[in-house]
Amino acid sequence: MKIKLDENLPFSLAIPLTGLGHDVHTTHEENLIGHADREIWESAQNESRFLITQDLDFSDLRQFSPGSHHGILLVRLHSPSRGNFAGRVVELFQTENVADWAGSFIVAAEREIRLLKTPLRPS
Fold this sequence. Notes:
With about 120 residues, the chain is an alpha/beta fold. It is about 25% helix and about 20% strand. It has helices spanning about 15-20, 35-45, 80-95; strands spanning about 1-5, 25, 50-55, 70-75, 105-110, 115.
């Protein structure tokens, strides 16, 4: 999976995700730190990348409806330390079928995930 890590995530998260076979870009590497969410979003979409973030600005389903993008994982933890956050994301990528997440909106908490996919259209 092609992934972009938002600026509010630990840069080091790229290492285990790359080790799991993913192509990971970070906003740090691309000099997008401090840029508007819209620029980060456009960069992810132009590169066909799945965005991982904890930024609630990306939670508006009217603007980021499933199927209208390459996918968003919004991680919401009660104790979002860098270690807890990285551990939870790596755990998800090790245990879930993330290949099915393309184009979806996913919210992950400590023990659960909510996956919103594009609604099926009748034939």
